Amino acid sequence: MNTFLIVFALFILFIFIWDIYLIRSQGKKASISANVIRISHKYPSIVFVFAFSLGFVMGHLFWNMDDSEIFNIKCEEVKVD
């Protein structure tokens, strides 16, 4: 398994456990989601910049590439008579 996937899965698990801890100890108002919603209402420009940046990064990661660049496959033309 790829090291990045392991680290990413552990990060997501940590965030999930941390959010549960915050909700149980301080209530829903302290959760990560509540903080994100509060910040987005107070600073809508941050949401715009984050969404634009995320779209920019995703566009660069998943832009259409030639299959031969990714899989090292060389296609040959087939002539049909």
Tell me about this structure.
The protein is mainly α. The chain is built from four helices and no strands. The protein is elongated, with a radius of gyration of 22 Å. The N and C termini lie far apart (46 Å). The mean pLDDT is 87.
Low-pLDDT residue intervals, each spanning 5 or more residues: none
Residues in helix, %: over 70%
Radius of gyration: 22 Å
For the largest beta-sheet, the strand count, sense and barrel status come to:
none
Order of helices and strands: HHHH
Mean pLDDT: 87
How many domains, as an integer?
Answer: 1
Based on secondary structure, the structural category is mainly alpha
In DSSP terms (H or I, runs of 4 or more residues), the helix count works out at 4
- DSSP, total strands: 0
Beginning-to-end CA distance, first to last residue = 46 Å
Strand proportion = under 5%
What's the shape? Answer: elongated
The gist of it:
This protein has 81 residues and is mainly α.
What labels describe this entry?
81 residues; mainly alpha; 0% strand; elongated
